[in-house]
Design brief:
The protein is α/β, with parallel strands linked by helices. It has one domain: 3-Layer(aba) Sandwich (Rossmann fold). Helices cover 41% and strands 14% of the residues. The protein contains 9 helices and 5 strands. It has a 5-stranded mixed sheet with strand order 1-2-3-4-5, sandwiched between helices. Helix 7 crosses helix 8. The longest helix has 18 residues. It is globular, with a radius of gyration of 18 Å. The C terminus is likely disordered.
Length: 206
């Protein structure tokens, strides 16, 4: 698919844009949820054309052996990486020490990348990272809050946009302060930044 993006006629022939629209391939982002999150990590690791990787509750079973043995190559220092997970995700009934794998993956990239962020969304669950939750209405499980399901879905989007803006993957189409304000209203109850990236961090590495 990435190869197709670079084809001359992709925008007008495949996407159907006929008004001179172009793709900014210098800001190519790979994102994924659950198993798609692990796929995004693998693609970002393998293809330097990917400049940013966003993962939401990445299911690390397929990468676990490499992570545990410290043989996972990981992303390169020029790529940006967001790890975001719901606080209930690692408690699923599996024999794999998923939390341990996740923490090791985070530690590896915190040490090697300049643009890295690690976020826990508290009192949320796996489905909140997908718009499928909107079709389920206020249905929840495990005694988690029901009235703010739509806000938790929006919160995921706000955290993604905030990271993309701060790490340079934006076209000034929205105000960062507005989204940071939204996040702040839910920070005490729902948002924990394990590692938060800022452009100050980037300057320290230069």
């Amino acid at each position: 698919m990435i190869d197709e993006l670079y084809e001359k006629d992709f925008v007008d022939q495949v996407l159907g844009f006929t008004d001179g629209a172009t793709l900014d391939l210098d800001k190519l982002i790979m994102a994924g949820h659950s198993m798609g999150g692990a796929t995004a990590i693998r693609v970002g690791e393998a293809d330097p054309r990917v400049k940013c990787v966003l993962t939401f509750d990445p299911w690390l079973l397929g990468l676990s052996k490499e992570i545990i043995s410290k043989k996972l190559k990981g992303l390169n220092k020029d790529q940006a990486f967001l790890l975001l997970y719901s606080d209930t995700f690692h408690t699923w009934g599996v024999t794999l020490d998923h939390r341990g794998c996740y923490e090791q993956l985070a530690a590896q990239h915190k040490a090697s990348l300049t643009k890295f962020e690690d976020i826990i969304l508290k009192q949320s669950q796996h489905a909140h990272q997908s718009d499928a939750i909107a079709f389920w209405g206020d249905w929840m499980q495990d005694g988690l809050p029901q009235a703010n399901t739509h806000l938790l879905l929006q919160l995921h989007t706000w955290t993604w946009l905030s990271f993309l803006h701060r790490s340079g993957f934006h076209n000034n189409t929205f105000k960062l302060e507005q989204y940071e304000g939204f996040i702040d209203t839910m920070r005490d109850k729902h948002v924990e930044y394990v590692t938060k990236y800022s452009d100050v961090d980037q300057k320290k590495h230069k």
